[in-house]
Amino acid sequence: MTHTTSEPHAPKTRIAEIRPLKTRTRKATALRSALLAAALVLLAGQAPARATAPHHGLRGDWLYLTVTRGDSRSSDTRGTLLLCDPPQGHAHAAEACAELAAADGDIDALPPKSAFCPMIYAPVTAHARGEWQGRQVDYNRTFANACSMAARTGDVFALDR
């Protein structure tokens, strides 16, 4: 009786296992390429529409302002929308808009006010994002306390007063 081994069949089995894998890989690559091409066509068609229409629906100069008391994990955040054409939405909208207009919308360029602030560390973070004269505004600063924030930013972040 002759005994045959399965070694001659092993390479065929391996080749049979590899072929479907290659076919599946090629199909997946082709499918990914087609999906990427379709996404690029859709994005290219929407780019001009997005450029002409504002995504936020607001016109003129506006900022969404928030003040967070405490560290970055704090949940004590207050916010408001400041509109400047005409001034509204903020307790001191007219004053804040006038200060921003004088600084051309640059919060860092606001002149500091003279103030005697306590040397107590009670951090507050001021954040503004929006649009001023067609330019995007994104401002984010942490101050040692509310007094130093008010001295540096004037009425812009005076949400509590």
Q: Largest sheet, order of strands side by side?
A: 3-2-1-4-5
The biggest sheet, with number of strands, parallel, antiparallel or mixed sense and barrel status, is: 5 strands, antiparallel
Give the termini distance in whole angstroms.
103 Å
What is the helix content?
Answer: 25-40%
| Rg (C-alpha, Å) | 30 Å
Q: Which class do the helix and strand fractions yield? A: alpha+beta
Helix run count: 3
Overall spatial form: globular
How much β-strand is present in the residues? 15-25%
> In total, how many beta strands?
5
Which series of helices and strands comes N to C? HEEEHEEH
Task: Quote the average pLDDT.
Answer: 76
Low-confidence stretches: 39-55
Offer a concise description of the structure:
The protein has 161 residues and is an alpha+beta fold. It is 38% helix and 23% strand. The chain is built from three helices and five strands.
SSE diagram, text form:
Blueprint: H1 10-52, E1 62-69, E2 76-84, E3 87-88, H2 93-102, E4 124-132, E5 135-143, H3 146-153
Antiparallel strand pairs: 1-2, 1-4, 2-3, 4-5
